[in-house]
Specification:
By secondary structure, the chain is an all-alpha fold. The protein is built from 20 helices and no strands. It is elongated and about 95 Å long. The N and C termini lie far apart (60 Å). About 4% of the residues have low confidence.
Length: 354
């Protein structure tokens, strides 16, 4: 998360003394605009030597110190600026530096001081939201993000901060509103698209999730997490062929590695997709591979049992079902869902296994 400083240059009388300080300040300001903070630091130091009574010289040198992660020097210069002239921007600046030092309570104190001088200082509201968020004081974070957005409904950082806070609170539908606003401001921002894809997925809006995951995969085609989430979304929309394609690609990526968990999980879900497509032979093969990588997976035994039963392999199906029960299948989420949906299903399906 980037913070925003206010950089200000004062105009001086064109005396030889003042002109020299202004010249250095102009060079320093131009350097900051180019994010050349070392040059900015050098020239604001020269400006201060020429005229040590200008608060904004210290303020802008503090900005350079902060950007160069020399935080204690930044705090010293912000304090010097404030000793000459108390401004909202310098209180905001020292608050940002304290935030960078994870001194969030001290940061909050300074952001509030900034607001006493400028009640419409949008960056102070945003920075307060960020600091409160880091302290897990989420309602206060939301309140300050809301105040910033009330001043400017398109304030990107505050919309972003509010969206992340809402996601943290599992308020995904509300987060989507902000993420869609952010996407209008920066339509190619992949971070925003990533958060939005997650929210679509969490709210079971799988078609939109698929669209966003597909966009993300254009720039990162071998991202296993994105492929897995898109595959799951395809399965939820009964697009099992497409899910199988994604799971197959994942396997081609991870087989060269040593992630037994990822292999087991991918074979498991591809096995379920094959079963949903009534390709029970492929399903059995995938559940077998899952079990090789995760021998205690009771649900893999169970679903291999159901696929074997469909293939007429009653002996294999019964052996798998009994192993699933021994491994704790009756305590699994899947078992509870099946029984809740149809209490007689398992007894009838595996009647010959008694």
């Amino acid at each position: 998360m980037k913070f925003i400083y206010t950089l200000t240059l004062m105009l001086f009388l064109h005396s030889a003394y003042g002109q020299s300080a202004q010249d250095f300040a102009d060079i320093g300001y131009s350097a900051i605009q180019k994010q050349d903070y070392k040059t900015g630091l050098t020239n604001f130091s020269k400006a201060i030597q020429a005229d040590p009574k200008q608060a904004w010289f210290y303020h802008n040198r503090a900005v350079c110190y902060d950007a160069l992660e020399n935080y204690q020097s930044a705090i010293t210069d912000f304090n010097k600026a404030l000793s000459i002239e108390k401004t909202a921007d310098s209180y905001n600046g020292i608050g940002i530096t304290n935030t960078n030092l994870n001194n969030f309570n001290e940061a909050i104190k300074n952001f509030n001081l900034a607001l006493t001088l400028d009640k419409n200082n949008i960056e102070s509201y945003f920075n307060l939201g960020y600091a409160y968020g880091n302290l897990k004081r989420y309602q206060e974070a939301l309140s300050n993000f809301n105040s910033a957005i009330k001043i400017n409904s398109n304030h990107f950082n505050s919309l972003h901060g509010r969206a992340i806070t809402l996601i943290t609170l599992s308020r995904f539908n509300e987060a989507l509103t902000d993420l869609n606003s952010l996407a209008k401001i920066k339509p190619e921002d992949l971070e925003i698209i990533s958060y939005r894809a997650m929210c679509y997925y969490e709210t079971a809006d799988y078609n939109n999730a698929i669209q966003d995951y597909s966009t993300l995969l254009i720039s990162d085609p071998n991202n296993v997490s994105l492929l897995s989430n898109r595959a799951a979304s395809y399965s939820f929309t009964n697009s099992y062929d497409k899910a199988i394609v994604d799971y197959t690609k994942i396997l081609s990526i991870v087989k060269t590695g040593n992630s037994k968990y990822t292999l087991a999980t991918t074979y498991y879900f591809r096995g379920k997709a094959y079963a949903s497509n009534e390709d029970y032979k492929s399903s059995v093969n995938d559940f077998t591979e899952c079990i090789k990588n995760k021998p205690d997976d009771n649900t893999a035994y169970f679903y291999r049992a159901t696929s074997r039963m469909q293939l007429g392999d009653k002996t294999g199906a019964c052996a798998d079902y009994k192993d699933a029960i021994k491994l704790g299948f009756k305590s699994s989420f899947d078992y509870k869902q099946i029984v809740q949906s149809d209490p007689k299903y398992l007894d009838e399906y595996f009647e010959e296994c008694k």
